[in-house]
Amino acid sequence: MPLHLGMLVLVEVGHLLFKRAYAKINLTLDVLGRRDDGYHEVDMVMQSIDLSDLVWLDKRPAGEVTIESTSAAIPVDERNLAVQAARCFFEHTGIAAGVHIQLEKHIPIAAGLAGGSSDAAAVLRGLNELFGTGMSLEELSQVGARIGSDVPFCMYGGTAIARGRGEKLTRIPYVLPMFAVLVHPRLFVSTAEVYQGLRPDDFTDSPASAAMVSCLAEANGQGIAPLVRNALQRVTFDMYPELRALAEKVEAVTHHPVHMSGSGPTLFCLAVTSGQAQRMYNALRGIMKDVYICRFVGAEEVVGQTAAE
Ligand SMILES: C[C@](O)(CO)[C@H](O)COP(=O)(O)OP(=O)(O)OC[C@H]1O[C@@H](n2ccc(N)nc2=O)[C@H](O)[C@@H]1O
Ligand SMILES: Nc1ncnc2c1ncn2[C@@H]1O[C@H](COP(=O)(O)OP(=O)(O)OP(=O)(O)O)[C@@H](O)[C@H]1O
User: In this protein, which residues make up the domain named GHMP kinase C-terminal (predicted)?
Assistant: First the structure.
């Protein structure tokens, strides 16, 4: 019997492999400088949250990689990062097979939440399981780095420092029981344009990751928000003055500091209890439509039992 999920109709339920693709927020994002390869040297503390896309994988004949999505706002061809991930998997393993990907999007698009990167990571983890290739997360992460700088973090999830262009990870074993209340203002922000807009005075030699990790290690939830910073925020706010105005409004109604994730435009406030998060959510729903309460998620939940460590 067909199973209806949003706009998707799943027919062969028995053969489908399911994966959840989690979004991330940046607790810190420092840029150390511009590199010769067009990327920037970054130092960031990344955190998975429980806002997720749902991904189903179904084996197909060799060379056939197809995708359908509940969102009309993303390409359903070779430009889709999930399709690119599948192509990379078959190329890397030499397996003569294909896959059909069904994507139920919940993570806002081009929002600074790594939605596409997380879909790509979930496809790589899922194909590793579907075809029994037994690759380690490290190997999958190296394959994923070809698709995007955020893919290696999304492969592991949880909490981590990401350096280099984002692919050099130090995993942090402390996940605080905290909440992030997200506000998505439905602006489309290009990550490349934001990085291009950085000026030398946006660069730093003293990133905030060490202080943030100490705070996480001490389980000092109240201490996290004052340490949050994002070097891309000035650029995105200058590009979209309405976003700076919205951030001021969010602070006024929540009475909490507001932060930007990645290259934006998603804004978030941190809460140490679900009650505090709910009050922020209620206040924000009065001024915005797209508001999400999310909890911090650890690597075990992101990865599950899907790949060799
Ligand atoms: C803003 C963040 O989301 C923070 O986590 C990431 O740094 C961006 O990760 P991403 O979206 O996976 O980025 P990619 O797809 O690899 O790169 C998109 C574009 O952003 C710029 N880019 C990205 C990462 C980086 N460390 N330096 C850069 O300058 C480059 O112009 C690149 O062409
Ligand atoms: N599976 C996918 N999901 C979302 N966007 C995708 C996907 N595949 C390709 N894209 C394209 O990637 C671009 C960035 O979308 P995405 O939602 O990944 O941005 P983001 O959250 O800002 O990512 P990051 O935080 O890694 O910079 C958009 O132009 C979108 O059309």
Answer: 222-285
For residue 12, what pLDDT is reported?
45
**pLDDT tens, residue by residue, 215-232:** 999 999 999 999 999 999
- Residue 40 alpha carbon to ligand 2 centre in Å: 19
Find out whether 271 and 277 touch, Cβ atoms under 8 Å: yes
pLDDT interval class at 14 (50, 70, 90): low
Sign, CA dihedral 102-105-107-109, equals positive
Decide: 263 in ligand 2 pocket, CB within 6 A: yes
How far apart (Å, rounded) are the C-alpha atoms in residues 104 and 118?
A: 13
List, for residues 193-203, the tens digit of each pLDDT value: 999 999 999 99
Residue pair 252/237 in contact (Cβ under 8 Å)? The answer is no
- All structural domains of the chain: 15-173 (3.30.230.10), 179-297 (3.30.70.890)
Neighbouring C-beta atoms of residue 178, cutoff 10 Å? 24
**Is residue 2 predicted with pLDDT exceeding 50?**
no
Q: Which of 281, 275, 305 is nearest to 126 (CA)?
A: 305
24 as an active site residue: the answer is yes
